[in-house]
Specification:
Elements lengths: L1 E9 L6 E4 L1 H11 L4 E7 L4 E6 L3 H14 L18 H10 L2 E7 L2 E2 L6 E6 L6 E9 L1
The structure holds zinc ion.
Length: 139
């Protein structure tokens, strides 16, 4: 069995951004040379997510509004976590809902997706350097 590890880096302009990273993940699979196996992709931070959904701008706007209703950033003082001097409690909550990681099958060297599935990095506390881990195992 072979294994391959790679990190992706992000520094978004905005606190909230959703970024399609499907091409980056497929490039990592190509680099790995693995044809049959599993690919794990996870955020290495507790205020951002990796998730699978549709690459459709209306849906992405819906995610933003829905997450902001569930965990509004303001007022910052509503969260106990922010008493530590941080302002990102809402970002931790958004990450928890959207998840930490995805695992996708690799078949014939390609991500073995269902229809419309794409992999996204969800940033909820951006404007600083963040990392995503890609770990691939297989043959
Ligand atoms: Zn925090």
């Amino acid at each position: 069995m072979k294994s391959f590890r790679k990190e992706l880096f992000f520094q978004t302009k905005n606190r909230f951004e959703l970024i399609n990273i499907t091409r980056d993940v497929q490039n990592a699979i190509n680099e790995s040379g693995i044809q049959e196996g599993l690919c794990l992709v996870n955020s290495m931070h507790i205020t951002s997510s990796v998730f699978i959904n549709d690459d459709e701008s209306g849906l992405h706007n819906d995610f933003k509004i829905w997450l902001e209703k569930l965990a509004p950033h303001e007022p910052i003082s509503q969260y106990r976590h922010n008493l530590t001097g941080e302002d990102n409690a809402a970002s931790h909550l958004k990450r928890q809902i959207m998840g930490r990681e995805v695992v996708v099958a690799i078949t014939n060297g390609k991500l073995d997706f269902g229809t419309w599935e794409q992999i996204f990095y969800g940033e909820f506390d951006g404007c600083r350097r963040k990392r995503v881990l890609i770990k691939i195992i297989g043959e």
